[in-house]
Structure formats: structure tokens, C-alpha cells
């Protein structure tokens, strides 16, 4: 099985930290040398392991931002 490689090009934010030290982060990442994507996932301390996550293109990230802004501003 091919080893998956990633390079965190830009650290954007740590969204939360668990009691075990895992952090949920949003970063700009290149997976296997491919184009940069926005990436939300959990990492162990020192980023030795990572959990399942979601990757988004810039257009998808913009659509998510718009949807979240509308949801958070709706007052429901």
C-alpha cells in the first residue's frame, strides 16, 4: 500500500484540543504533492498521527464559509 505523504504549507488555526492532546486543526495542505487544499482534521501531539478529516478546494471552502455565515447570522 502506498504511503500517504502530506505537507502542511500554512497553519491556519487550532479549532479545539482534547484532554488527550489531540488537536482539531484547519490547515492548507498538499497531499501526495497535489494542489493545495483546505484541510480540517485531528492530529495527535507532534502530528505523528492524523484522524479522518475533510479536504476542500478554495471554492468549496468559500461555499462553506458563506453557508456558515448565513446559519450563524440567522438567529434560529
From TrEMBL:
Domain Transcriptional coactivator p15 (PC4) C-terminal: start-end pairs: 21-67
Entry's Gene Ontology BP terms: regulation of DNA-templated transcription
Pfam assignment, any one: PC4
Top-rank taxon, per record: Bacteria
MF-aspect GO terms: DNA binding
Protein name (database record): Transcriptional coactivator p15 (PC4) C-terminal domain-containing protein
